[in-house]
């Protein structure tokens, strides 16, 4: 207080000193008030700063600095979750790769294969006779963060006026159908539509002027098996130098989600061709899968770098979806692939033969050299634990449901590549939603 109120001079009369004393409490109050306001203002600035040490993370906190701040946070959160960037998922600080599946009976899927009219029969396991339902109640919990729950309303608001397109094979189509089913239930019947095509299928949320699309390109690059599909992998030929036939459909898309893996894993060498098929299919060369995969992905990467404006379009890449066709991988000596499995693998070190680390590293190396930022939806490890969630014998083949005889022979007929819906692809979309 000595800086604000000077000490009385010896020359000053006693009555003057007496007159100053009554002002001391008033000045003290004024000083404290200014100090409090300054501190409060500084704290507010710090709290809302993106670099603040108080910035809340996705990881749960054990305590909050004060009840007042906690109340303020809740008020801000309730106003508009779309503009509250303090609660965005931060992939730089919280990884979803390491974690565990936790059984949660209270967790209900946002849809069923009975309620969502847009699911293919191939992934509608309950409709196809699957009785057990535990596979729908496992929740992925990362070790060092909390993965935000999928919120259909927020997802649609984020997509307002935009195009979201999934590009890839039937597994990517499953992710697309999952996303559509996770949002369509809250849209009135007359405000939504779905148009299916040979290559391009489009779900439209009319009120939001948004589309959620799927484009069929199992290799991303052009092949003679894009449509119609050639069943014999030995007859397939890839144009590893061109995505032109497909990429004309990828332009002017706001969010692109790519994937390609399973179709490359045929066990045979990849026949690769330069130039158009019209010039003759005999000019191909055969390459080992990793080499052909590298060439094909470089072609895709060059297109992205040359044609995508990162200020306008966001690019994602879903990592490989693991297959579970060898029950020996998880110690089931007399097992029939994924048939009759009802629980996830609990061994955190598990990595099955259906996930090729070499192929995964190819994607990583190419993406990290690209000019346009590409965000990985890293679903491989968490999906590798889910031997229980494939469509198995509760599926169709050739457009027809498996017969009783085929179901009795799971070793030859169980589908341990595709996933039941609702199911694991919902978690993939939960991760995608966290990044939007």
UniProtKB/TrEMBL annotation:
**Organism for this UniProt entry:** Citrullus colocynthis
Ranges for domain Trichome birefringence-like C-terminal come to: 147-434
> So what family is this one in?
Belongs to the PC-esterase family. TBL subfamily.
The record's keywords, sorted A to Z, are: Membrane, Signal-anchor, Transmembrane, Transmembrane helix
Q: Look up and give the membrane topology term.
A: Single-pass membrane protein
Residue ranges occupied by any Trichome birefringence-like N-terminal domain in the UniProt entry: 92-145
- The source's superkingdom equals Eukaryota
Output the lineage of the source organism.
Answer: Eukaryota, Viridiplantae, Streptophyta, Embryophyta, Tracheophyta
Q: Which cell locations does it reside in?
A: Membrane
List all Basic and acidic residues biased stretches.
Answer: 67-84
Residues spanning the membrane: 24-42
**Family annotation (Pfam families):** PC-Esterase, PMR5N
Query: Where does it mainly reside?
Result: membrane
Region labeled Disordered — which residues?
55-84
Protein name, per record: Trichome birefringence-like N-terminal domain-containing protein
